[in-house]
Each structure stands twice: as C-alpha cells, then as structure tokens.
Design goal:
The complex is a heterodimer of chains A (137) and B (326). Chain A has 137 residues and is of the alpha/beta class. Helix content of chain A is 45%, strand content 19%. Chain A has one domain: Rossmann fold. Chain A has a five-stranded parallel sheet with strand order 2-1-3-4-5, sandwiched between helices. In chain A, strand 3, helix 3 and strand 4 form a beta-alpha-beta unit. Chain A starts with 7 loop residues before the first strand and ends with a helix. The relative contact order of chain A is 0.18. Chain B is of the alpha/beta class. Chain B starts with 8 loop residues before the first helix and ends with a helix. Classes of the chains: A alpha/beta (137), B alpha/beta (326). The interface between A and B is large, with 44 and 42 residues. Strand 2 of chain A pairs parallel with strand 3 of chain B.
C-alpha cells in the first residue's frame, strides 16, 4: 500500500553565522506542515552539510545564511552533492542576500532563494510546489 | 527542474553493495516510502546480510544517547572499521511531521564517507522503531558497514523492541535522572547487555553507577543463557573517558555470543520477530484498505450490539484468510 511519504527537508546553518532564530521558526513551520525536518545545528562546513543531505537523501536542502558568505558556500555545496552523484536534491537558500547575487545563485543551480520577509506559509507552499514539479526519484 | 528517469531499484542494489553513499540513501528512502514497491530489491539485499554487528542503543530522553553514539562512531572509525547509525525520532501525532535532531550532535562525522548516519521518524509505530528501520539496517549491512547502530526514541517503557532487533543492546542512563531510573527499571534496565552512565564527569555519577550495579546484583541479570556479566561503564563526552571501554565491551559481547552460539539464537529471534511483524503489517494494511467496506459493515453490527467485537474480528479474519488462500 502506498502511503503519502512526508517531504524530507534538511535545514542547515553554514560557517560562522550564529543567527538561528529564523531557521528554527522555519523548522517548526515545516514540521507543522507535516514534513520531516532534519536540522544540522550551527557552524557546519559546506561539505559536512552536503554529505549529510546526501546520506539523508532529503528532498530539499535549505541553507540559512545571514553572514554574506553565500557566494562561497553555495558553490561548495553544489559541487559536493554532484560529486556524490546524488540526484534530485532541491537546494534552497534563505536569509539576507543582494538581488544580483540571488540571480547568480539561481544560475548556479540553487532553485529558489527565500529572502528575509518570506512568510512561513509561503516557504511551505514553495517547497511543496518544487517537490511536486521534480516528481518521484 | 529536469531529472533523469529514476534509477531502477535493481541497479541501486548493485551500487549499495559497492558502498555508494547516494545509492544507499536512495534505497532507504524508497523503503520508507513503500517497502512493497522495493520488495525484490530488499529480498536481494537480505541475501547479502549477516556480516554486521547490530548494536541497539536506547535510554530515556536526555541520557546522552546521540552524543554517546557520535563518540562511539569516532572510536570505531579510529580502529579502521566502518560504522552506520539509524537514528529513530518520534513523529508528531498532530501534524505527522517530525524534527530529527540527532545530527546536531553527530555533525563532526558528516564528512567521513565510512560513517553513515540516517535519521528516521517513527511514523506512529510503537516499540521505538519504524517499519523501515530493520530493512534500512539490512541495506547498511549489505553495503559493508561493520557495525550498525540503531538508536531508538527515548521514551522509556515501550522501546524494548530494540532488544529483539539488535545483537547487542546498550542502555544509556545519566546521573541526576534518579527518578527516571526508577521509572525504567522494570523495562529497559533488564534488556541491557551493557549499561552506560553518561556525563560521568558530573559529581553524582558514581552514585548512579553504584545504584545500577547494585540493582544488577540483586538478580536483574539477563535471562540469556550465556555467562555474561553486564558491565556498567561510565562515559564522559567532556573528557572522553570510558569510550574505549565501551567499544571493547561491545566487541567482547559479540565474541562471547559467537563463542557460545548465543549469536545464532539471537539471529533466529530477530528473524522470527521480523516475520511476525511483517505479517502484522500486511494484515493491518488490509484492514485499513477495507475500512470503508467490510470493516464498516462489521463495525455497524457491533455498534448495534448484534455482534460481539471478538466475533466481528473472527469474521473479518475469516474473510481475509479465504482471500489469501484463493
């Protein structure tokens, strides 16, 4: 019997950015929307987070960044996941980032950037839409 | 986003046996989604299991299981062996969602390909394990991990399933949880092959250790037939104390079980439990598929007091039995 499998999401904080209030609110919102949420805790390296996402085989990897290091961190994450030959992990970014960087990150393969004013419900619906668009894997 | 056609489960099995991380992860996901859909793959995996030492670690919430496991993993890796962890966390009964938090304490292990950690939600399953837990352990066994650790939800009394799923069971306690020790002593304390008292850098740890030892000598010895004195080991995440002792005890227990034939007995017990559990799950799925139809009909008769609940159950099982036989 095929039951509905919850969407698996990993939320991560990378580098020296210690502001985790926002990511915890998002974690709770996603859990309340019926998703499985794996939170990595603070001060992880990009490689650690990417490997963890591969092992957990999450549908979505959400990186919360308020430190301004997004242009160095995202490429490392994308590269590690590609090296591991893991397909179909949707990468999202959240936090504070300039518009021109957002455009460039999307170019690299980050699916969506949800900036600081995004309401939790919109995060939930964005994730649902992206996972539905990706389809089974 | 465009994704290539999903890899076939058969191809995944090949990659799992080669130890490819993303294949192991994907096959576990598919098992969680629907064990039936990957039945053939899991059957193939099952044929290649039997090498790994399966260690269950349990204990009340806050007893330091995740921290202990993170350090134990490092200890195993230092000795050159490969280690995997399946960490089971509870599912919210309200939303069906979960927060799986074990990785917070196991983060340093993440970048090592010979350490594999997988979080899993219970999906409302009782007993502290989820339906996909043991198939996931099989997958990790077949992938060549030497030690596979199952961490169960720390709820106290109802998590003794782990003892029927693992070769060696470790129970973690922490000092200062005196009342909890009282609370669990009827259930969890008895199932331990090894006791750990974590946070033993704290001043009240010795008391907890001696209390445990006293309790064990009173005659709460395991019912197992082999001659094994359940050790009580103090560990500290701060000083690193006791970790080597713990790994030695785990290895000694395995050696002792192999020597005495206890390992084969436990394997048989695990196999039996899994067959029964599967049968139970299959029946439950049938009931749930039928809830609208015949279950409803029988329930109505029971509600009208025309039929006793037990007789209703017999009728339902009789119908299902006929279907299975035909």
């Amino acid at each position: 019997m095929q039951k509905d499998t919850p969407i698996r999401v990993m939320l991560a904080k990378v580098g020296l950015d210690g502001h985790d209030r926002g990511v915890k609110v998002v974690a709770r919102a996603l859990r309340d929307a019926g998703m499985d949420v794996i939170y990595t805790g603070l001060h992880r390296t990009a490689e650690e987070v990417a490997m963890a996402a591969v092992q957990e085989d999450v549908d979505v990897l959400g990186i919360s960044l308020l430190s301004g290091a997004h242009m160095t961190i995202f490429p490392k994450i994308l590269r590690t996941i590609e090296d591991q030959d893991s397909k179909g992990i949707i990468i999202l970014g959240g936090g504070v980032m300039p518009d021109e960087d957002v455009a460039e990150l999307k170019e690299m393969g980050v699916q969506e950037i949800l900036l600081q004013d995004t309401p939790p419900q919109e995060i939930v619906s964005t994730i649902r839409e992206l996972v539905a668009a990706r389809g089974p894997r | 986003m465009t994704t290539a056609a999903p890899t076939s489960s058969r191809a995944l099995v090949e990659d799992v046996r080669r130890g490819k991380v993303s294949a192991i992860a994907r096959l576990i996901s598919r098992t969680e989604a629907s064990p039936d859909a990957v039945g053939d793959a899991l059957a193939e995996i099952h044929r290649h299991t039997g090498r790994a030492h399966i260690v269950g670690i349990t204990g009340v919430p806050g007893s330091g299981k995740s921290t202990l496991i993170a350090q134990l993993c490092r200890q195993v890796r230092d000795g050159g062996r490969k280690v995997a962890v399946v960490a089971v966390d509870p599912t919210s009964p309200f939303s069906g969602g979960s927060i799986l938090g074990d990785r917070v304490r196991m983060s340093e292990l993440n970048s090592d390909p010979d350490t594999f950690i997988r979080s899993m939600a219970t999906r409302g399953n009782l007993g502290g394990l989820s339906r996909a837990t043991l198939p996931a352990v099989d997958i990790l066994d077949a992938a060549g991990f030497d030690i596979v650790i199952i961490e169960t939800v720390g709820v106290g009394q109802d998590e003794v399933d782990v003892v029927r799923a693992a070769h060696t069971t470790v129970v973690a306690s922490a000092p200062g949880l005196g009342d909890d020790i009282q609370a669990i002593k009827a259930g969890v304390l008895e199932i331990a092959d090894i006791h750990v008292v974590s946070k033993c850098d704290r001043p009240d740890a010795n008391r907890t250790i001696s209390e445990l030892k006293a309790m064990l000598t009173i005659g709460m010895q395991l019912s197992s037939r082999m001659d094994w004195r359940v050790p009580v080991i103090g560990t500290s995440a701060v000083t690193g104390e006791g970790l080597d002792q713990l790994l030695t005890a785990i290895d000694d227990h395995h050696a002792k079980m192999t020597e005495t034939g206890e390992l084969d007995r436990r394997r048989l017990r695990i196999a039996e439990m899994r067959v029964l559990k599967f049968a139970e799950d299959m029946l439950r799925d049938r009931f749930e598929n039928d809830r609208e139809g015949r279950v409803q009909e029988i329930a109505e008769q029971v509600a009208r007091l025309e039929l006793a609940p037990e007789a209703g159950a017999r009728r339902l099982l009789g119908q299902i039995q006929k279907e299975i036989a035909s």
